[in-house]
Write a structure and sequence with these properties.
Length: 233
């Protein structure tokens, strides 16, 4: 998979893209991550990317020319995937959306700043707008880092051999069951007996019950229909 990110602050991705699962996946060739400064495509001497809004009002708006030029250059380099604008007005980013995106050969993430993009970019260039939540960030960079992390860990080979994204929260519409490790007793708090029993069927049932109870308590909106599906965890 190839992911291109368009931003005014490429250095913001050095940490999130250089470490941990995303960093290792990039180093192993599971994903090709490229970060581009669309200021490099500004046409004037001052490399201007923003201007005051028509009609007045606070803040600055990102001009269309550098963004169009940056995307056209990515298209010319072979990137055929959708152009996704990180925006508080977009479709909510969920695990299902992450899975959808993980199935693509690639995509471009466009990070806004200031008051956002000139609407002509959204209307005539952007394929989809995605929001990571009902709050306003100062820029699309943290949202792009969230999307890349959630998508990359779903790619085959991104997680270690013994880890599977199929067992995690949201994978079957439930929050995940609780985990415990050694010691079996810590400050008087014991690990649930069943986990020490070696009875795999009992452990599977306990985890399923825990996942259902947790989801019903914290996220009842996710549980519709889950009680009768007899899922695997
Ligand atoms: N004026 C815009 C509004 O009220 O809808 C907010 C602009 S915000 C300060 C600057 C940039 O941050 C946006 O262009 C977008 O790229 C990004 N951004 C802000 N909140 C976001 C969110 N919840 N999800 C994804 N991107 C977000």
């Amino acid at each position: 998979m190839r992911i291109d990110v368009l931003t005014l602050f490429p250095e913001m991705f050095e940490g999130p893209f250089g470490r941990s699962i995303v960093g290792r996946a990039a180093a192993a060739g599971v994903v090709e991550l490229r970060v581009h400064n669309f200021r490099d495509h500004a046409a004037d001497r001052h490399r201007t990317v923003d201007d005051a809004p028509f009609g007045g009002g606070p803040g600055m708006v990102l001009k269309p020319e550098p963004v169009f030029a940056a995307v056209e250059s990515l298209r010319a380099s072979g990137q055929r995937g959708p152009l996704v604008y990180l925006s508080p007005k977009g479709r909510s980013f969920t695990q299902a959306v992450a899975r959808e995106m993980a199935g693509q050969a690639g995509f471009i993430l466009l990070c806004g700043r200031y008051e956002g993009l000139d609407q002509r970019v959204v209307d005539h260039l952007v394929d989809e707008e995605i929001s990571i939540g009902d709050y306003v960030l100062s820029g699309g960079e943290p949202a792009a880092a969230v999307v890349v992390d959630a998508v990359v860990r779903l790619l085959p080979g991104a997680l270690g051999d013994d880890a599977s994204p199929d067992e995690e929260s949201f994978s079957d519409g439930l929050l995940e069951y609780p985990h415990y490790t050694r010691p079996a007793e810590f400050r008087g708090w014991a690990v649930p007996e069943v986990l020490l029993s070696g009875n795999h069927e009992a452990i599977r049932r306990w985890r399923r019950e825990q996942a259902l109870a947790l989801t019903q308590t914290r996220r009842p909106d996710l549980t519709r229909g889950q009680e009768h599906t007899g899922g695997t965890r």
